[in-house]
Amino acid sequence: MLIGEYETKIGEKKRVAIPNKFRKELGSNLILTRGYEGTLVLVNKKMWEKIAKEVIEGSFINKHIRDTTRFLVGSAIEVQADTQGRIVIPRSLYEYGQFEKEAVFVGLYNWIEIWGKKKWEGRLKFLDENSDKIANAIQEMNKKNEK
């Protein structure tokens, strides 16, 4: 289970070390892609297959499916960790994530988000200020789905 929050430095060559706990759970065949809210998503191939299937299963003629496929699948890259558990973040993904010198790995059960530290701090502030509203919106959505 991928849970927890870990801060790490980003090296000059855009190399970042995957936290040891996550490395053990993910294995060696990894996919790195764009995520929402300016994050990167890191998953193993097994989870990637589930995500990609959900994304591309709809009709090709549906604009939203094409756009979501472009966003997630179009930016995906296979990455291999070196012997020290580091991966290189490609330039396009590095720029998308607006990284500086530090990254935060956040385990979200089935996937990992990689945030630039400043962006993560901003998101935490947003979550702190809006957690009640978010919880209520989810509760309302669940009520509608039950009907």
Give the helices and strands, then pairings.
Elements: E1 2-9, E2 15-17, H1 20-26, E3 30-34, E4 40-44, H2 45-56, H3 63-72, E5 77-79, E6 86-88, H4 91-96, E7 102-109, E8 112-116, H5 117-146
Antiparallel strand pairs: 1-7, 2-6, 3-4, 3-5, 4-8, 7-8
Description:
By secondary structure, this protein is α+β, with helices and mostly antiparallel strands. The protein has a single domain, classed as Transcriptional regulator MraZ domain (Chemotaxis protein chec). The protein has helices at residues 20-26, 45-56, 63-72, 91-96, 117-146, and strands spanning 2-9, 15-17, 30-34, 40-44, 77-79, 86-88, 102-109, 112-116. The strands form two sheets. Strands 1-7-8-4-3-5 form a six-stranded antiparallel beta sheet. The protein has a two-stranded antiparallel sheet with strand order 2-6. The longest helix is centred in the C-terminal third of the chain and has 30 residues, at 117-146.
